Amino acid sequence: MIYADNAATTKMSPRALQVMTDTARNVWGNPSSLYELGQRAQETLADARARMARILGAEPKEIYFTSGGSEGDNQAIRSCARLGAAKNRRHIVSTAFEHHAVLHTLKRLEKEGYEVTYLPVHENGIVTADEVAAAIRPDTCLVTIMFANNEIGTIQPIQEIGAVCRAAKVPFHTDAVQAAGHVAIDVKEMNIDLLSLSAHKFHGPRGVGALYCRTGLPLYPLIEGGAQERNRRAGTENVAGICAMAAALEEMVENMDKNAAYVSALRDRLIDGLSAIPHSALNGDRKNRLPGNVNFCFEGIEGESLLLLLDQAGICASSGSACTSGSLDPSHVLLAIGRPHEVAHGSLRLTLSEENTEADVDEILKEVPRIVEYLRGFSPIWQDLVSGRRAHML
Ligand SMILES: *Cc1c(COP(=O)(O)O)cnc(C)c1O
């Protein structure tokens, strides 16, 4: 089997898995308990927090452990919205191609009386700091823009956007779930006020993540209860998962340059190979993208059929985000970068990791063109395109 869906989730690294089982076995006390066993868990937790903070360029007390990316996004946005309402500011700036954890939270806030500006995304899948600056108003209480897109892998000019927000004194949140562990992040240097990440996107366990919130910016809890996470997130801490996350992130950061060079070379070969398929197009900027991300549209086919046939060939891929697969709506990300509906339906996302090999790329480059040709063979839309009854868009 070839796993090429690392944007959906990643396989835990042996080191993270070892840390998780060792911690669960040996440090199983409740960190809130006062006896020695509990205090050991408390110290282990403090150590993991300090290590996460160091990697992000933050202070340990600015790191809050969560259940993952969705929770971090929800809490960051809702917290800033509540803070804004207290100052009579109910305007939020975001983009049209955020993850649903952000978009659906914003939709909910719109129903609650907030106004959201969704910046259009350029064809290359990138928004500019100038556009953010132009959208900020006196009543803006939050700018939330993802670090790297989960479907097309494009990386946003986060440092510049952060500088614009800092100058306007507007809190800046970034969903860095796809970026953490894959590209360098320094929250201070990049002027980031809030940042969410999730362990399972960098070879850590599912169900654990972290939210960075800058000192001085109040953070409201989503979950009320005990005093864990300095009263910002109630619930007995997932110590084993948190330690495994810290280990996984450290491992990724230690190897970041080496991994990026290796994975992006595989990615580039894949992009070059798939570009040879007639009437296909790469989605998102060719250079400014995550090392492992390949996303194509092929005219005249349905992405879902392509995925099923790839699965039969032993290749795990995606047509967009895991959250939208199963629905027949085309990807909101591909529509946001201007792909027409018909074209957006024929998309394929392949996301590679350090575990993939040259042989995997060879195999994918053998199977995808064959399956695309096969599916086009009985596609009425393709017949229309070939006969000229319908104009090619790619
Ligand atoms: C996966 C993902 C999320 C959700 O993270 P979970 O830990 O699965 O809740 C949020 N944002 C982006 C960009 C993602 O890729």
Summarize the structure.
This protein is an alpha/beta fold and 394 residues long. It has helices at 14-26, 36-56, 69-86, 100-111, 129-135, 158-168, 239-254, 256-275, 303-312, 332-336, 341-344, 358-377, 380-387; strands at residues 2-3, 63-66, 91-95, 115-119, 140-144, 172-175, 194-198, 209-213, 280-282, 293-298, 315-316, 347-351.
List the helices and strands and how they pair.
Blueprint: E1 2-3, H1 14-26, H2 36-56, E2 63-66, H3 69-86, E3 91-95, H4 100-111, E4 115-119, H5 129-135, E5 140-144, H6 158-168, E6 172-175, E7 194-198, E8 209-213, H7 239-254, H8 256-275, E9 280-282, E10 293-298, H9 303-312, E11 315-316, H10 332-336, H11 341-344, E12 347-351, H12 358-377, H13 380-387
Parallel strand pairs: 1-11, 3-4, 3-5, 5-6, 6-7
Antiparallel strand pairs: 2-8, 7-8, 9-10, 10-12
Bound molecules: pyridoxal-5'-phosphate.
Residues 68-70, 73, 99, 101, 146, 150, 175, 177-178, 198, 200-201, 209 line the site of pyridoxal-5'-phosphate.
